[in-house]
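Supplementary Methods, section 5.1.

A reviewer requested that the exact input to the structure prediction be made available. We therefore reproduce it here, unchanged from the version used in the analyses.
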Amino acid sequence: MTEDDFERLTILLEEFGLRPVAISGHVTMMDKDPSKERREIDLLKKRIELAGRLKTRVVVTRTTDPMISDVSAVFSKAEIERFYDNVKVVIDCCRNSNVVLAIENDGGITVTADSALEAMRRIDSEYIRVNYDTASMPFRFGLQPEEDLRKLLKYVVHVHIKDQRGGKGAYVFPAIGEGELNFDNILNVLRSHDYKGAFSVETGFGKGDRMKSGCEKPEEVDEILRRSYKYLERYRWLFQ
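The structure derived from this sequence is encoded token-by-token as follows.
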């Protein structure tokens, strides 16, 4: 991002009265190719620095390819250790920018609460936390997320409110409230533990409510987000 780009961004944010509370900075922090991994970490550092300039507290990322649920089956011990070395570099950047990096439970090392807890305890930094995607457990394991979420709440600073339909392996993410997740239960877990972090809505678009990138029509996006917002209005505390 050039300085002109940054200036245009700040003007647009001011024009629309927006204050970003989180940035999607998704990169691949673990890769079989060390040179690609270094490039990804450099990109992540730039996104953390951007968040700092915008006074945005959270940057969301992932550990590796989101389709990898068992890192030990794909990466060697040395490659997994390299991830933790990369985290040390990122922590310094977060500290300098006053930003928290929220690693998503979207495959990789943080795919379940148990594996994420192990990673959080090992990293042991206030600058590394978790972004919890509510549809990850249903999609990957056919399980509802409430118990998994409850275990991890201490480290959760950002939540993707995301619905899913079809059970394990079904890549179908409809408007919120139109899938099979029980948001009464999920959101009650967060509220009962006085969760103070941010939320964002994630959905699929188009035929089958599948996740796409760059091929959505604006009116298609607007409609599915309208339905999601209407459903979430029943949880008034989300908007306070």
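The longest strand covers residues 22-28. These observations are discussed further in the main text.
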